[in-house]
Amino acid sequence: MNGTNLTKIALRALANNKMRSLLTMLGIIIGVASVITMLAIGQGSKKSIQSQISEMGSNMIMIQPGADIRGGIRQDASAMETLKLKDYEDIVNNTRYVSATSPSVNSSGQAIYGGNNTPTTLYGVSADYMKIRRYKVQDGDMFSEQDIQAAAKVCVIGKTVVDNLFPNGENPVGKVIRFKKLPFRIVGVLVSKGYNSMGMDQDDLILAPYTTVQKKILAITHLQGITCSALDEKYTDQAIKEITEILRTNHKLKESQDDDFNIRSQQELSTMLTSTSDMMTILLAAVAGISLLVGGIGIMNIMYVSVTERTREIGLRMSIGAKGRDILAQFLIESILISVTGGLIGVILGVGASVVVKMVAHYPIYIQPWSVLLSFAVCTFTGIFFGWYPAKKASELDPIEAIRYE
Questions:
Q1: What is the spatial distance between Cα 375 and Cα 380, in angstroms, rounded to a whole number?
Q2: Which of 107-111, 163-167, 269-273 has the lowest mean pLDDT?
Q3: pLDDT score at 72
Q4: Which end of the chain is flanked by fewer CB atoms within 10 Å, N or C?
């Protein structure tokens, strides 16, 4: 008996039990739809994290003072004064794999303009900070190198600060705000970047020359941090190695001594976050995959029932010349048709559910073609795997006993 005839017989058998066939497909439909939706959410989250880290500067390197033990007491890293201006200058002048470098000092407090005020953070940086963090000026200009040399009281502000201090929509450029009683003239407004992957508002900040913040706000000579960017993400490790050598030399550290500074890169953060995202995606997909297993068990159960109900039919087919392999193929085709049809419906529902999640919950989604193909392949395998044993049992029935079956 050829494959076309077997397929027609299988389709006729399924059509005679439409409701039962639909209910059998339901487990496969839910399983495939769940897997596609969960993978879309997981991959969307991963893409969103990678995109936001890229916006922050995927080749960014952050240098902070390291904790130290003094008098048997471990000092907090923020209290250490191990980073100096010479460290910053040597990194600028003596590295090959670093493209931009900025000192970093900061202070939190109230920014005031007229009757409006807002809590924010003032960052003392150089002009290179814009390149490192990929900030852009929307209105006005960035402060200049001359402003840094003169410790000028000028600043560039983020959109959140603009919205809080200038709620009536007036142009803030040229206006004077106060931070810890010190007046700052606004020379520019940053392009909005929104929230990052860790929920931090990237627009709630004020940028000023680091010399101004050092001398007139904090009254310190050391740096609280240094921010760099490698020539390219692939050169991050080489850049970190160069920076480490420079700092250890400047700080006169012996080989046996630990670093008195910490270096972290966005690459590490990206790897950690995407690893966590991948783990969650696998977990979600595994939970959703249980539905596919349940659906497969449902197929096996229904195929057992079908074999039992059609025992006399099987006996008649065998008595007029049908071979065991024909009976095996017939029931296997029925099983595959149930799983494949359920898989197709599940794919459509899964894609639709993903789009609904994006539109209603505003959650980032990303449907990868491989996830659809994988779900479809798994449901086809499920049909073959769970349909094989009942089909095999049907093919091994004795024709005479099958005809006598009541």
A1: 9
A2: 269-273
A3: 46
A4: C
CA neighbor of 32 nearest in space, from 283, 358, 282, 285: 285
How far apart (Å, rounded) are the C-alpha atoms in residues 362 and 45? 12
| Residue 395 to residues 306, 307, 316, 334, 404, Cα–Cα distance (Å) | 13, 10, 12, 14, 16
Which DSSP letter does residue 214 get?
Answer: I
**Residue 135: closest CA among 165, 107, 91, 102:** 102
Q: Which two tokens stand for residue 27?
A: 């487990």
Res 71: pLDDT: 47
H or E element at residue 99 = strand 98-113
Written as one letter, the residue type at 124 is: G
**239-266 burial string, b = 16+ CB within 10 Å, else e?**
bbebbeebbbebbeeeeeeeebbebebb
Residue 364's contacts (CB-CB under 8 Å, 6 or more residues apart) are 44, 45, 47, 48, 358
Retrieve residue 295's tokens.
């659906």
- Going by C-beta distance under 8 Å and a sequence separation of 6 or more, which residues neighbour residue 134? 55, 56, 57
Helix axes 18-57, 3-15, angle to 10 degrees: 100
Contact residues for 48 (Cβ-Cβ < 8 A; gap 6+): 197, 364
DSSP labels, 246-273: HHHHHTT--TTSPPSEEEEEHHHHHHHH
At 183 the three-state DSSP class reads: strand
Distances from the Cα of 14 to the Cα of 41, 174, 303, 358, 378, angstroms: 35, 77, 11, 36, 22
CA-to-CA dists, residue 136 to 173, 347, 370, angstroms: 15, 42, 37
% helix, strand, coil for the chain, step of 5: 60, 20, 25
